[in-house]
Specification:
The complex is a heterodimer of chains A (about 280) and B (about 180).
Chain A lengths: L2 E4 L5 H10 L4 E6 L4 E7 L2 E7 L10 H7 L5 H10 L5 H10 L5 H19 L6 E5 L15 H21 L6 E4 L14 H8 L7 H7 L4 H13 L3 E4 L7 H8 L5 H16 L2
Antiparallel strand pairs in A: 1-5, 2-3, 2-5, 3-4, 6-7
Helix pairs in contact in A: 1-6, 2-5, 6-9, 8-9
Chain B lengths: L1 E8 L6 H8 L5 E6 L10 E14 L2 E7 L8 H7 L4 E7 L6 H14 L4 E6 L9 H7 L8 E3 L5 H20 L1
Parallel strand pairs in B: 1-4, 1-5, 5-6, 6-7
Antiparallel strand pairs in B: 2-3, 3-4
Classes of the chains: A alpha+beta (about 280), B alpha/beta (about 180).
Chain lengths: ~280, ~180
């Protein structure tokens, strides 16, 4: 029977454990709520990882991976983009090594770092479906690597625990943030890193946390981590986003078809009754 | 006849069932079962579906009180119970700070389900280990405008005050 199922029953970390212990080879396709990932294993080691949204080469191609790892600069990236159209990663890698742009180690380390980054995103996927296909291998045009899964599994377990806690603290990313008006707090004197400042710059009751994450190019775990820190420090508070249904809207749902003046009368009658108990 | 409803929610063993029992004119329709989890065996039974109480104003108006199950694994009931509610009360056990984080999470969940007025009832305030209301406000990260009220679920006056404060908030919202 094919190895397939639901992430709610079998987590990504458990899947990696299975692949690792059984020395499996093949492709693991994971369909999350908004993204799809394909992981390829060879004898229990990760050989390749790809997100569907980055599969067109615009993000996940070798030039972009090397640029993200700061192995090539902006100008080199632009040159490769225009001249390397149609080349496979293997051909391009050989060309770059021969031209002295990068070493073989640079390429392998950059790819490993990119794949580990993808895995870290996957650890936060708690909903979706998976399917393992033992007949698939690394595509011909891609450069395979060998990443042992033990460290990934340990890191994944840690991330899952962190994810569960942050999800518990901030369950709803459709809420917005507002600055607290605590006297004496000057945001400029607080030590924030670049990512935190980026989030802070978008804080406005009009922007939901989800929108801030999108604008800041952060995944759900990253945005929750930063928002949690800001909440704990008392710098921000959760508010309903502007334009969301108000409490008055909610009350209208409780009194379907009843006029507002009549609603007030009903509440007063309820209060009188409770006082009389 | 018009029926309106309020929801009483909060973590496990916060006193929700007693709260409803104290003011309901009918015996509370309670769906309690013996507790199976050893970690949660601080009392013999717990609510698994909902509690249901009633306060009749007259033949044309009735208030229903729904108590949600306190155990996290029954949270699928919350959204169903919150539909069309007039407002909600979040009960928090003042003597068990380890439940404050969960109370905060439940509050956020209900705010997301239905944007109606709510109050926080700091229950078991008659016990010597009860946290101070001001400290609970900080620990629960409640905004300035949110009412947090001392409450003893078995005391009728205390329960009435909590209900009246919620109705006062609803009236204020309607007048605003």
């Amino acid at each position: 029977m094919a190895l397939q199922g639901n992430l709610q029953d079998f987590t990504v970390t458990q899947l990696l454990n299975l692949v690792n212990l059984a020395n499996k080879s093949g492709a693991l396709l994971i369909q999350g709520p908004n993204e799809e990932a394909r992981l390829i294993f060879r004898e229990g080691k990760l050989a390749n990882a790809q997100l569907a949204s980055e599969d067109d080469g615009a993000q996940g191609g070798l030039p972009q991976v090397l640029h993200r790892a700061e192995k090539i600069n902006d100008a080199q990236l632009n040159t490769l983009r225009s001249r390397a159209v149609g080349m496979s990663d293997k051909e391009l890698g050989l060309l770059l090594i021969n031209a002295g742009y990068v070493t073989q180690a640079d390429i392998l380390e950059s790819l490993k770092s990119y794949y580990v980054g993808i895995m870290q995103q996957l650890f936060t996927w708690v909903e979706g479906r998976f399917k393992f296909d033992p007949s698939q291998d690394v595509p011909e045009n891609k450069i395979p690597v060998r990443i042992a899964l033990e460290n990934l599994i340990i890191e994944g377990s840690r991330q899952l625990a962190e994810w569960e806690q942050l999800n518990f603290e901030i369950p709803n990313l459709d809420m917005a943030l507002a600055f607290t008006d605590r006297p004496g707090v000057n945001l400029k004197k607080v030590n924030l890193n670049v990512e935190e400042w980026r989030v802070v710059s978008y804080i406005n009751p009009k922007n939901s946390i989800r929108q801030i994450a999108k604008a800041s190019k952060m995944n759900d775990l990253e945005i929750r981590r930063i928002v949690y820190g800001l909440l704990q420090a008392g710098l921000v508070r959760l508010v309903r986003p502007a334009g969301a249904p108000t409490q008055l809207d909610g009350l209208q749902a409780a009194f379907p078809g009843v006029e507002k003046t009549e609603q007030k009368t009903l509440i007063t009658r309820l209060m009188d009754r409770i006082r009389s108990i | 006849m018009l029926t309106v409803k309020m929801v009483v929610t909060g973590p496990f063993n916060a006193g929700k069932t007693e709260f409803i029992q104290t003011v309901s004119e009918i015996d509370v329709v309670s769906t309690e079962r013996k507790i199976s989890s050893p970690q949660e065996r601080v009392k013999e039974t717990t609510t698994v579906a909902m509690d249901f109480g009633r306060i009749t104003v007259d033949e044309s108006l009735v208030l229903y009180l729904f108590g949600t199950p306190g155990q996290k694994r029954f949270d699928f009931m919350w959204e169903i119970l919150s539909e069309g509610m007039l407002g909600f009360i979040v009960m928090v056990d003042s003597t068990r700070p380890e439940t404050f984080r969960e109370a905060r999470s439940i509050l956020e969940a209900f705010r997301a389900f239905s944007p109606t007025p709510y109050v926080v009832a700091a229950s078991k305030q008659d016990l010597k280990d009860a946290w101070d209301i001001d400290d609970m406000r900080v620990a629960l990260r409640l905004e300035t405008g949110v009412k947090i009220l001392p409450c003893v679920s078995t005391d009728k006056d205390s329960v009435k005050t909590t209900l009246l404060e919620l109705l006062e908030s609803i009236l204020t919202e309607l007048e605003g």
